[in-house]
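@channel sequence for tomorrow's demo:
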Amino acid sequence: MTAPYTLEQVKDLNLFSFLKDTAKKMPNNKALAFVGEDFITYKEFENKVKKLSYHLQLHGINKGDKVAIWSENSPNWLISYFAIVAIGGIAVPVLPDFSTTEVENILKHSEAKVLFVSPTLYRKLYIEDTMVGKTIILLSDFTMHIHKKDEVKKESDFSKFCEENKGEIDDIKFPDVKSDELASIIYTSGTTGTSKGVMLTHANLIANTIQGWNTYNTNENDRGLSLLPMSHTLEFTLGNLLPVMCGYSISYLQKPPTASVMMPALKSVRPTIMLTVPLIIEKIYKSKIRPELTKSATKKFLYENVPFMRKIMHKMAGKQLYSTFGGSLGFFGIGGAKLDHDVERFLFEADFPYAIGYGLTETSPLIAGTWPHNCRVGSCGPAIHGVTLKLRNIDPITKEGEIIAYGPNVMQGYYNDPEKTAEVFTEDGGFITGDTGIFDKDNYLHIKGRIKNMILGPSGENIFPEEIEAAINKSEWVLESLVYELKGKVVARVELNQEEINKQFKNMKNKAIEMEKEVADILASIRKSVNVEVSRFSRLTNIFEQKEPFVKTPTKKIKRFLYKDKEAHENPEITSDTDDAKE
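structure tokens (generated this afternoon):
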């Protein structure tokens, strides 16, 4: 398939151009549906957008007004988004896992006039003084609720409205929306505790969609299955805008992606394209694949000590995994956080069609990435088409430096926050990512860690928690880990795989007492093996069990700020510094 658009054309487009052009060229192509339900076509998609756009216009939403969307994934989510931007409005996607307090803060900060909300989240929403003067539209059927002082006025249903205004809808006049105008304000999920409103223009999002196509060519015959929240830029740009640009179908789940929901969905959709975050595939590997490959002493020995046998076992397991995912995958994109080394080695040796990407909300998001079967374990690939990546403050020994990005997909700035905006741009317009990395001889980027997470060692060494966590997570006992500084020492919290522990020690007599001892031994063993692997200044002083699952962002990254400098409550010290001399 030839490129639908080039980067040179971005200046002449707006996001609604994608839908209009696809509806004209491929009107009968399947567009959007919940899994198991009938698809609407691209022509029907465009017609629904026209109806909703007119509805918004008639209720006083004009070019430049902000309209928020707080909902789980659905066809109506995307219809709402296109209706907003088609009339020159500014969409404010809100992650569905945000609390009602966070939502109200976002509505206030963004100055949103209208909130599209799913029925589930509408029930959670506290209608307090902040909602007075706001219009709420239920995403399920576009019923409008106008909140005024001491009353909620419910408008006539949307279907009836469309029938009564058919002529006007057919003749709707859309404003002239330029590519450099604002399309979205996206509030980041952030692991540091504060959300910022990232301003992305039509040009930013259009450019990154075209860049995504240049990284992996898709066509009208592809089938997408949308798993990540649509308010997350990775899913929105590459999982929704890219299909609309190319004219292929998108299926949505009606429930969270648990195994019981996913399995029939994969069988039904047989997706060719999926996007995910590392946690999902890491859980599959650690809970299903690795236990199967090491379930007997012989298999465990071969898997861990005979590389060519491990590769054969990975090939066989990879074929089963490919079949489980529907048997048609061409692109399994992974982004949002660093992928566990052992999990990526499995995918690589299994010849699974995975691809790693790197980006940020501020870059729409993709800035580096590669395509399946062209990956290098530990790397997120080279800079994508149209993006330039540079390093600054390069360490003369390690050659690592802070990553700076240039390209048409880089944001305008943070909404109503010129100070923070100034902090993240260089004098020549480069975006300061806040991540450190290194390029290999072929310009493949390897991410080392986030500067804000960096721990300064006793002699000024730069210690990146992500590298130590990668070593911890290799253990079959570990689900997740978090490395941080406590009282000047490097320590870790570890969430153990309780299912595996219970399976291994199910025949204990005094279970509670013996289990406590076994857990202590496991933690000590993990610490010892990690300290052998990492540099001396990165060695763990203490390691604690995290008994409750880590609190995460909606994109499944641990909220580090909740644990930073937190005391290790009831856990005793496992070892002391003097033990390092014995290792």
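heads up for whoever presents: The chain has three domains: 7-246, 273-327+329-407+429-453, 455-582.
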